[in-house]
Design brief:
- By secondary structure, the chain is of the alpha+beta class.
- It folds into four domains: 95 residues; 89 residues, Beta-Lactamase (2-Layer Sandwich), CATH 3.30.450; 72 residues, Signal transduction histidine kinase, dimerisation/phosphotransfer (DHp) domain (Helix Hairpins); 156 residues, Heat Shock Protein 90 (2-Layer Sandwich), CATH 3.30.565.10.
- 52% of the residues lie in helices and 18% in strands.
- The chain has twelve helices and 13 strands.
- The strands form three sheets. A five-stranded antiparallel beta sheet has the order 2-1-5-4-3, with helices on both faces. The protein has a five-stranded mixed beta sheet with strand order 7-9-10-12-11, covered by helices on one side.
- Helix 7 runs antiparallel to helix 8, helix 9 packs parallel to helix 10 and helix 10 runs antiparallel to helix 12.
- The relative contact order is 0.06.
- The structure holds adenosine-5'-diphosphate.
- The site of adenosine-5'-diphosphate has 22 residues, from helix 10 and helix 12.
Length: 426
C-alpha cells in the first residue's frame, strides 16, 4: 500500500514538473490524476473479466498493487479448489462405501419423501430409480405397522417385519433422525437370524410339551405311593418325598417354559378384555398368605377398587402372581409384603414391596433374563425356576408396560409394573 502511495506521488510530481515547465501545473496535475485513474480502471476491468470468465490458471499480467491482488485471489481460488476437490473425494468415498453395504440405506427428507438410497435398498425393498425418487416412503412400504413405526416411533428399538416383496424373508427397520427432521433408514435382511430364533422357540416349546406327559405319569405314581403309607417301606419314604418334590419342580419349570413360549408366539395372542384387577389381587393376597403360612408374614393390599385394566387376564395373573410369590419367597418370617394398585399422572401402577433380603445393584439389570438368579442356591432352595421375572417382562411387553425394580441389599425390594394410562378402565 505504501509502495502504491509513493507511486502516485512520483506520478503527480512528474506531471506537476512537466506542467510547471509548460506553465500549466493545475492542468498537468489533473491530467496526471486522470491517467492514474484510467490505469486503475483498466486493471479493474481485467480483474472483472478474469473473475467472470473464470479461467483459473491465466492470471492477468499486472505489477504493483494489482499484481499482488491478482496473486492473492489466485491463491485463494487454488486453496478453495483444493478443499472442494478434497470434499468431493470424501463424499464420493462415503457414497461408494454406503453403496457397497449389504444393508439398505435410505435417506428420507423432512416430509417423509425418498431422497437417496443405495443399491441394496433396490434389492431389499424393491425401490426403483428414478421413478420412486421424491415419493413418500410410506407409499412404497405400505405395512400399517411400518407406517406407525416410521411416523410415531419409538425409534430406540428396531422394528421387525416380514418382507413385502420376498416371501419368507424377514427385515429389520431402524430409523435415525438427523438435521431438521431428516431421517436415515437402515433395513437389514434378518431372515437367517429370524429362522434360528424360530427354531429355538419351537425346540423349547416342543421339548416342554413332550416332557409334560412323562412328568404327569411320574408325579401320579409318586403321589399314590406316598399316600399308601402302610405299604411303603419307611426307608423309601424320604427318597419318595424328594422325588415328588423334584418332579413338582420340573413340572413348574415345564409350565413356565410353555407359558414363555406362548407369550413369545404372536399368533397365539388372545383378545384383550376389561380385567377386574382388584378382585384378582384379593385372590393373590389370599394365595400369598397361604403360600407363606409358616412364615407368618403380614400381607397388605392397598387397592383402587374402581380401577380396572384392559388386558389379558391369564397373563396378568401369572405376572402379578410371580411378583407376589417372589416377595413371599425372598422375605424372612414375620416380614411385611405390601401390594398396591393405583393410577397416577397418566399411568397405572401395580407394585409389590417387601422388607426381605433385597438384591445387590449389580444383579438388577439382568434379573429379567431367563434363568438369571441373584443367589442361585437360595432360589433353588425356595423352589424357584429362574423364569418368573422373564414371564413378568414378557407379559408387561404385550401390555406396552415396563417393570421398575428398586432394591437395597438386606433392606428389601419394590417391583413396580407401569402400564400406560390408556389401558385404564373404570
Ligand atoms: P426365581 O424362580 O429364581 O425366583 P425369578 O425370575 O422370579 O426366578 O427371579 C429372579 C431372581 O431375582 C431370583 O432368583 C432372586 O434372586 C431375585 N428376586 C426376585 N424377586 C426378589 C425379591 N422380591 N427379593 C429379592 N430377590 C428377588
Amino acid at each position: 500500500m505504501k509502495q502504491e502511495a509513493s507511486r502516485l506521488l512520483y506520478f503527480l510530481l512528474l506531471f506537476g514538473l512537466v506542467g510547471w515547465l509548460f506553465d500549466h501545473p493545475g492542468w498537468a496535475l489533473s491530467l496526471g490524476f486522470l491517467t492514474y485513474t484510467v490505469l486503475h480502471l483498466r486493471q479493474l476491468e481485467k480483474l472483472y473479466r478474469w473473475l467472470r470468465e473464470g479461467s483459473d490458471d491465466d492470471i492477468p499480467e499486472a505489477t504493483g498493487l494489482w499484481g499482488e491482488v491478482f496473486q492473492n485471489i489466485y491463491k485463494l481460488q487454488r486453496d478453495e479448489r483444493r478443499s472442494r476437490d478434497n470434499l468431493i473425494g470424501i463424499i464420493e468415498r462415503a457414497r461408494s462405501s454406503v453403496s457397497s453395504l449389504r444393508e439398505a440405506v435410505v435417506l428420507v427428507d423432512g416430509n417423509g419423501n425418498l431422497e437417496w438410497w443405495n443399491p441394496a435398498a433396490e434389492r431389499i425393498l424393491g425401490l426403483q430409480s428414478p421413478t420412486d425418487l421424491g415419493q413418500p416412503v410410506t407409499n412404497l412400504v405400505r405395512d400399517p405397522v411400518f407406517i406407525r413405526y416410521f411416523e410415531q416411533g419409538p425409534h430406540d428399538v428396531p422394528l421387525q417385519l416380514p418382507s413385502a416383496i420376498h416371501p419368507a424373508h424377514h427385515l429389520q427397520f431402524s430409523v435415525n433422525r438427523f438435521g431438521s427432521n431428516d431421517r436415515l433408514m437402515i433395513v437389514e435382511d434378518i431372515t437367517r437370524l429370524h429362522n434360528l430364533e424360530e427354531m429355538r422357540k419351537d425346540f423349547v416349546a416342543n421339548v416342554s410339551h413332550e416332557l409334560r406327559t412323562p412328568l404327569t405319569v411320574l408325579s401320579g405314581y409318586l403321589e399314590t405311593m406316598l399316600s399308601m403309607e402302610e405299604e411303603t417301606p419307611s426307608r423309601w419314604k424320604r427318597a419318595l418325598q424328594q422325588m415328588d418334590a423334584q418332579a413338582g419342580r420340573m413340572t413348574s419349570l415345564v409350565n413356565d417354559l410353555l407359558l414363555l413360549s406362548r407369550l413369545e408366539n404372536d399368533s397365539l395372542k388372545q383378545e384383550p378384555r376389561i380385567v377386574n384387577v382388584p378382585a384378582m389381587l384379593q385372590q393373590l393376597k389370599n394365595e400369598a398368605i397361604a403360600y407363606g403360612l409358616e412364615k407368618h408374614q403380614r400381607v397388605i393390599l392397598e387397592c383402587d377398587d374402581s380401577l380396572r385394566l384392559v388386558g389379558l387376564e391369564d397373563d396378568l395373573r401369572s405376572a402379578f402372581s410371580n411378583l407376589v410369590t417372589n416377595a413371599v419367597k425372598y422375605t424372612q418370617a414375620h416380614g411385611e409384603i405390601q401390594m398396591r394398585w393405583w393410577a397416577e399422572n397418566g399411568f397405572v401402577f401395580f407394585s409389590v414391596k417387601d422388607d426381605g433380603i433385597g438384591i445387590d445393584a449389580r444383579h438388577i439389570p439382568r434379573l429379567t433374563e431367563r434363568f438369571y438368579r441373584a443367589d442361585a442356591a437360595r432360589s433353588t432352595a425356595t423352589g424357584g425356576t429362574g423364569l418368573g421375572l422373564a414371564i413378568v417382562k414378557h407379559v408387561l411387553l404385550e401390555h406396552k408396560a415396563r417393570l421398575d425394580i428398586r432394591s437395597t441389599l438386606g433392606k428389601g425390594s419394590t417391583f413396580t409394573c407401569v402400564f400406560p394410562g390408556s389401558l385404564a378402565a373404570h
